[in-house]
Structures are given as structure tokens and as C-alpha cells.
Amino acid sequence: MAKGMRRRLWQVVWRRSQALALALGLLLLVTSCAIPQIKAEDRLFIPVTVELLDVYNLPPQSFEGTTVGGISALVYDRPRDRIYALSDDRGRFGPARFYTLAVTLGGSASQPQFGTVRFEAVTPLLDAAGNPYPRGSIDPEGMALSPRDSLFIGSEGDVEQNAPPFIGEFDRQTGRVIATLPLPERYLPDDPDQATRGVQNNLSLEALTVAGTSGGAGMIEPFRLFAATESALVQDYNNDPSQPLNSRFLHYLIGDDQSTLIAEHRYPLDLEPSGAVVNGLTALLAIDPGGHFLALERAFGLRGMQVKLYQLATGGATDTSTIPSLAGDVAGISPIRKQLVLDFAETPLAVDNLEGMTLGPRLPDGSQSLLIVSDNNFESDRATQLLLLRLQM
Fold it and tell me: Where are the alpha helices (DSSP H) in 173-219?
């Protein structure tokens, strides 16, 4: 081939390669503009949105010789279409107990709302001997319905009364305790007057939820129960207001013959608002088998009631079960991750002391409802709020 022809051929090849490179560069530029940049942490979460639909104010009332109030946990029993509501009464207005409610939803597909809320039964909680718990010995706060049709209930206990916290499994029909879960010594106060370890009084086992499946044909697969303290343990407490307090998040595996605490994680609370009297985690709800939860955090003080709903992602969180204290420097301990779902301050509703939530019945359009309840602390001039929300995942 002549030198001139070779030169012209190379010129054509070079120009075409340059054009191809320019086209590829433009394609990459357009593609990179079209794809949103996602932070690595955001990939831990699943898409979750909630929409506040309705509020039902349940006035103070009596039912079968008990004062209705102090509702701290809700559980929806889907097969029976009933709701169980746990009272945190320590025995002042009746025995430790839960109520059975029939709740109907009305309205339209575009605007669902509460229909009727009717109390049907009250079930006292009984100890292993079949007797009501002595006054002050139990403070029921968290509740979950298990795949084997029992109720797990968390009690905060009472440090001043030397009543330890516990998580018990109760017969749903009789209310009698069947068994208690092993609770590590680090959760048990060592001295009622000057404790150096254990739960703080009234900031103990507040949140409880269950995730699991039925094995069918009368067999139940092992399932998982999760619990969390409302605030820091005594040995985890940090009095530096610029640092968030850490709750402990417990992960149990529940089997037919044995229940085992298999992990524990650090749950960082929001910074305590200025002037807050109470601040902590009040409810947990498992929303999938992959370690995602909803969590309610509530603060109350000079600035009124502040409540936020978060999504949690537990994947990758450090097991803290062998760490003596979470106070001070907790560098190197990966916490449970949180993502804000709803700040109730941004809704038109003046929320009260929200403490319990459950997945409820399907809404008319087939979407999933979320029910949240407030604890009126047995104050005669305060209603119990029932909130209806649409949950989309």
C-alpha cells in the first residue's frame, strides 16, 4: 500500500475513534445526570412513607370495674380482627391487665377514618400460681402477639419497690404467665438506693415486637422477639447534654424448648431537647424479616410533647452484649441506623403521649393501616388518642 493511502486510512480511523470517544463521553454525562446520587447509608433502608388519616379520642371511662387508661401498647390480632390494648396500671385502678377492643374503619377509599371503637373484654395478668400480681410488682409497657398465639409482655419493674424488670410470655385467653425470658444481670438494678448498674426507674423495658412465621400443620418455626429500653442503663448513662443517650436493643430467638438472647445493639436516642423532663424510645414494630423496624421516640418538657417516627435498620450494628458500658466514647461501635419517617410536629395534629403502635387492618383501598395510641397517664381530663395512618412500603 502506498504511503499516502496508508496516511489517509490512519486519518479516517483516528477521526472515527475521536468521534466515538466523544459520543461515549456524552452518553456517560447524560447517564450520570439521570441517575440520582444515593448515599451508601440510604441503601440500608427500605422505602417507607406514612400518611395521617384520622384521630379518635377515647374519653376517660370505666369498664368492668377498671379505669380505662394508661394504654402503653397495641397489638392487632388479624385472624380474630381484634385489638389488644395493654394498660400500664401498676395496680392503682385495677389489676395489671389488657383490654380486647373491636375497632371498625369507615369512610371512603380515598379518606378512611375510624368507625366504631368498642371495648369487649378485660383480661387480668396472672402470675405462675394463677394470682393477680401484687400492687407495684409489675409495670406492663410493651406487648407483642407471637406466632404461637401467646402474648409477650415487657414489664419495667419498679426499682424503688425492688421489683425487677422482666419479659414474660402470657396465655392470651387466661392472662396467666407461661414463662419468662432470660434477662442479663446488667439489666437488673444492684441497689435500690444507689444503683451502679441496671435499668433506670420508669425508663426500662418499654418497647417490644415479634417477627416470625408459622410453620403450618400445627408446627411453629422459631421466631424472633425484639425489645428495647426506653433510655440508657445506669452504667450507660452520660450526663453530657451534647451527647445522645444510648438505649439497648435486645434480640431473642424463641424456640419450642429454649429462648436465647442472641444479640444486643446500641440504639442512639435523639439528643434530649432543652427543658425535657422525659425523653426516650416508647415503641418498636418489626416491618419485615430483614431487620427493619418502626420506632417511636417521645420527649416531653417545657416545649411540650415532641414525637417522631423513625425507620430502623439493624444490619451491620455491633453486638454490644459484651460491652460493659456505652457511656462516653463509643467510637468503633456501629449503632442501629435511623431514618426519619414522620415528625408529628409537621402535622396539624397536637399529639399526646404516644406510646404504642401496631399494624392494623387493611384500609378500603387494600393498603396497610398503622395504629398508634397515647397513654393518658390516668388523668381524668385527658383523652386516649387513637391515630390511624396509612403505611406504604
Answer: none
C-alpha cell at 355: 406510646
Question: Three-state DSSP class for 260?
Answer: strand
Grid coordinates given for 128: 405462675
What is the rounded distance in angstroms from the CA atom of residue 379 to the CA atom of residue 113? 26
How is 277-316 classified by DSSP, letter by letter?
EEEEEEEEEE-STTSEEEEEEEEEETTEEEEEEEEEE-TT
Q: Which of 63, 76, 82 is nearest to 144 (CA)?
A: 76
Name the residue with cell 384520622: 54
Measuring CA to CA, which residue among 343, 341, 231 is closest to residue 278?
231
Q: Cell numbers of 217, please?
A: 400443620
CB crowding 194-221: b at 16 or more within 10 Å, else e: ebebbbbbbbbbbbbbbbbeeeeeeebe
List Cα–Cα distances, 124 to 96, 217, 232, 373, in angstroms: 6, 31, 30, 20
Our CA dihedral for 121, 125, 126, 131, rounded to 10 degrees, sits at -70
- The whole-angstrom separation of Cα 252 and Cα 122 is 29
Report how far apart the first and last C-alpha atoms of the chain are (Å, whole number). 68
Q: Which residues 6+ apart lie within 8 Å of 310 measured at CB?
A: 294, 295, 296, 297, 338, 339, 340, 341
Mapping DSSP onto H, E and C, the string for 323-365 reads: CCCCCCCCCCCCCCEEEEEEEHHHCCCCCCCEEEEEEEEECCC
Dihedral of CA 361/111/386/338: which sign? Answer: positive
Other CB atoms closer than 10 Å to residue 291's CB: what's the count? 19
Identify whether the C-beta of residue 249 lies closer than 8 Å to the C-beta of residue 212.
no
User: pLDDT digits over 50-103, tens only?
Assistant: 999 999 999 889 999 999 999 999 999 999 999 999 999 999 999 999 999 999
Is residue 254 within 8 A of residue 225, CB to CB? The reply is yes
Write down the residue that cell numbers 437488673 correspond to. Answer: 188
Backbone angles phi, psi at 392, to 5 degrees: -120, 130
Distance CA 388, CA 184 (A): 37
- pLDDT single digits (tens) 215-235: 444 557 899 999 999 999 999
Is the CB of residue 268 less than 8 Å from the CB of residue 338? yes
